[in-house]
Amino acid sequence: MTELEKRFTEEKERLGEVKAPDELEDRLRKALEKVPERKRKVAPKWVAAVVALLFLSIVGYNYNAFAYYGKKLLGFEDIMTGTLSDLNEAGMGQSIDATVMLHDGSQLQLEGMYSDKSQFVLYYTFTNPGGVDLDPPYSFRSITGVLTNSFAVSGTWSLNDEETKLTGMQTFDAVSPFAKNLTLHLFEEVEEGQAMKEHEVSFPFNPNEAMQTEWKQSIKKTVQVDQGMIRFDAITATPSRTTITGKLKVDNYDRYTGAFDGVELLADGKPIDNQGAGVSSSWNGSTFDLSFDALPEGVKDLKLVVSTFVGYMDVDATVPLVDLNEDPVLIHEKELFVRQVEKTEKGIQVTIATADDVMLEGVSIQAGERSVPLKTLLRQDHVDDYKERILLFESDEMPDALHIKGMHYKKSYGDSIKINVK
After folding, report:
1. Residue scoring higher pLDDT (4 or 242)
2. Counting CB atoms within 10 angstroms of each CB, which of 29, 71, 150, 315 has the fewest?
3. Which residues of 293-367 form beta strands (DSSP E)?
4. What is the pLDDT at residue 422?
5. CA distance linking residue 395 with residue 286, whole number of Å
6. Which Pfam families does the protein's record reference (predicted)?
C-alpha cells in the first residue's frame, strides 16, 4: 500500500464517523449565493451620503433595543430548561399567532419566541387528532426578514400521553434588529421521494423590545495541544447564551467527534452548561464558536478550562493475533479487543474494538517476516459501548500479530485561561 492509499484508508475511517447536520445543505447553498460578482465599481458621491445617513439610523435604532418583551409563554414548561425557563418566568417572551395546515391534516401552530443577539428561539405545537407521527413530515429551514437570513440550528420536543400533540422548541441564528416582520420557511414532505413543498409564514417582530443586551470581552489566549494550537479570541454573553469564538489549527482535530466537549467555562468555580460547538473551515484556516448557557448575574470570576482535547502519541505496539481470548490488550492504558481473525476471499479480516475516542494510525499485520499494511475499513459499529471495526488486509496468509504505529485519542490537558469580567 502506498502512502497515498494509506491516507485514503485513514480518511475513510474518519469520514465514516462524521454526520452532516440536516441544515448543512441550506447553509452551503446560501453561502454560494452570497459570493459576489468580481466587478470593480466606483461608488458615486451620493452613496457616501446614504451610508452616513444609514449609520446615523443604526445608532438611533439600537439605542431603543434594550427593553424586554412582557409576555410569559404557557404550556412549554416541559421543554424549557435552565436560562430559557428563567427568562420565561420573568415574562420575556412574545406571542405569535400563526398556523400552517399540512397535507395530512395535521396543524403546525407557531406559539411564541425569544430573541437576543445570540439566537432566535421559536416555540410551536404540532397536532393531529388521529395521532402525531414521531417522524414529522416537516423540517424547519430558516427565518428571513430585513437583513435577516437565519438558519435553523437545533430543536427539542415532547409528546403528550395521547400522542396527539407535540410541543416543540427550535433555535435559529440571531435575527437582525432592523426586521419588523419575519418569515418562517419550512419544508413539508408530501410524498416520499418527491420534491418537498415549501411553506412561508410571516409574523410581526418588534426589535425595539427584543433582548439585545450583550457583554463582550477580548480573550486572545492560545493553548498548545499535541498537533497544533487553539486560539480563544473573544467571549460574548447575552441573556440567553454565552458564545466563545476563536481560531483552530490542529492537524488531528476531527479524529474523534466532540473534541470541544472537553472545553469548560467556569463562573465562580461552577461549570456553565455546554450547549454545543461549530467549526468552519476555509482556505486560510478554521474558526470555531462554542455555545454555553447564559452567565449568572454578578459573576466575579470567569475561567476557560481545556480539560480534554484531541491528543496523539506514537505507540509502536504489537498485538498477538493467535490464541485469542476475551481479555483486552492495554496500549498506553487504552483497551483494545481482538474479536476475530479470519481468512476470506477478499483477504485477511481482523475485527477489533476500542473506546469511542480511539483512532489508530499506521496499522499492519505481520506473518513471520512479512508485513502487510491495512487496505481498507470494511465496517464500523458501536457494540456494548465500544467502537468495533472490521479491517481488511490484502493477504492470504494468517497473521501472527497486529502492529500499530500511533494513536489519536481524548487526552487530558488541564490548561486554564482567566477571563477579565470588569
Report:
1. 242
2. 29
3. 302-320, 329-331, 334-343, 348-354, 359-367
4. 72
5. 40
6. DUF4179
Taking only the tens place, the pLDDT of each residue in 274-321 is 988 888 888 778 999 999 988 988 899 999 999 999 999 999 999 999
CA atoms of 125 and 67, how far apart (whole Å):
27
Residue 170, exposed/middle/buried by CB under 10 A (0-12, 13-18, 19+)?
buried
Determine how β-strand 107-115 pairs with β-strand 94-101: antiparallel
Residue at 277: amino acid letter: A
The residue with cell 396543524 is: 107
Compute the C-alpha angle 386/387/392, nearest 5°: 140
Q: How far is CA 142 from CA 149, 272, 383, in A?
A: 7, 28, 37
Grid coordinates representing 69 are 418583551
Cell numbers found for residue 68: 424586554
Could you count the other beta carbons within 10 Å of the beta carbon of residue 4? Answer: 8
Tens of pLDDT, residues 89-144: 666 677 888 898 888 888 999 988 888 888 898 999 999 988 887 777 788 999 99
What residues form DSSP beta bridges with 151? 142
Phi, psi of 262 (to 5 degrees): -90, 5
**Closest C-alpha to 139, from 76, 192, 174, 184:** 184
Q: What is the pTM for the complete model shown?
A: 0.67
Give the residue from 352, 335, 357, 354 showing the smallest Cα distance to 256. 357
Neighbour count for residue 174 (Cβ, 10 Å): 19
252 CB-near residues (< 8 Å, 6+ apart): 226, 227, 228, 310, 312, 408
DSSP per-residue letters across 22-69 = TTHHHHHHHHHHTPPP-------HHHHHHHHHHHHHHHHHHHTTT---
CB atoms within 10 A of CB 244: 23
DSSP 325-339: -SPPEEETTEEEEEE
Give, for 11, the enclosing helix (H) or strand (E): helix 3-15
Residue closest to 119 by CA, chosen among 168, 173, 68, 169: 173
Q: Which residue, 391, 366, 408, 395, is CA-closest to 6?
A: 391
